[in-house]
Specification:
Blueprint lengths: L2 H14 L1 H39 L2 H4 L1 H26 L3 H21 L6 H25 L4 H23 L3 H34 L1
Helix pairs in contact: 1-2, 1-4, 2-4, 2-7, 2-8, 4-5, 4-6, 4-7, 5-6, 6-7, 7-8
Length: 209
């Protein structure tokens, strides 16, 4: 992975500079929101395609809980990796380790709770562990950078949409489940476009000064 080689040194450089650290404080919520929207859109794309694949190959329908939870967990893992780099750059590696252990414990508990449901418990366990990691890491980074809590909460909202997409994929079979994921995907794409416009306006205002 390129995170330790390229991203981590850059974050350390920004945190060491007073002006860049202030910029990070203002932009952290936008960075988290943008990352969540992009990874969430990738998840919903996969969830929307899954019912069509299941129609072509029916055995996939039984594996929907496993596949949906695993896909969402993988995308959450990609999102939270940046958050872990922020924690380590802020000399909070101990918290990163504890969060990892806690999320793994939650995943193991979910695995045990669903042990009688064949392979679906693996997907739900991965989904649960990564969702907890995302919530705790994003909030913790906001606290360390003295960013308002409500901004961290806004950055977590896309994962609620992902959770809805995972639930519908596992509980509503056929095209109906795909329609829900497609509607959520449209909302996510609109959110990405709005966020891009917002960031462009902020940049123009900065240069205007």
């Amino acid at each position: 992975t390129l995170y330790p080689v390229l991203v981590y040194p850059k974050i350390c450089e920004w945190l060491a500079d007073t002006h860049k650290k202030a910029w990070l404080k203002d932009m952290l919520s936008y960075l988290n929101l943008g990352s969540a929207l992009i990874y969430g859109a990738l998840t919903l794309t996969g969830l929307a395609l899954y019912p069509f694949l299941a129609q072509w190959f029916p055995p996939l329908q039984e594996a929907a809980p496993f596949a949906a939870g695993l896909l969402a967990g993988i995308c959450m893992s990609g999102h939270v990796r940046l958050g872990y780099e922020f924690l380590q750059a802020q000399k909070d590696a101990g918290a990163a380790l504890l969060i990892n252990l806690f999320s793994l414990g939650a995943g193991a508990a979910t695995l045990f709770a669903f042990h009688a449901h064949e392979t679906r418990e693996i997907g739900w366990a991965w989904f649960t562990s990564q969702l907890l990691a995302v919530v705790i890491v994003d909030i913790r980074n906001g606290i360390l950078l003295s960013s308002p809590l409500h901004k961290s909460a806004i950055g977590l909202m896309p994962w609620l949409g992902v959770g809805i997409g995972v639930f519908t994929t596992t509980s509503i079979h056929g095209i109906q489940g795909a329609v829900v994921s497609l509607l959520l995907l449209a909302v996510f794409m609109s959110g990405i476009a709005f966020l891009a416009k917002r960031l462009r306006d902020l940049r123009q205002n900065k240069w205007a000064r």
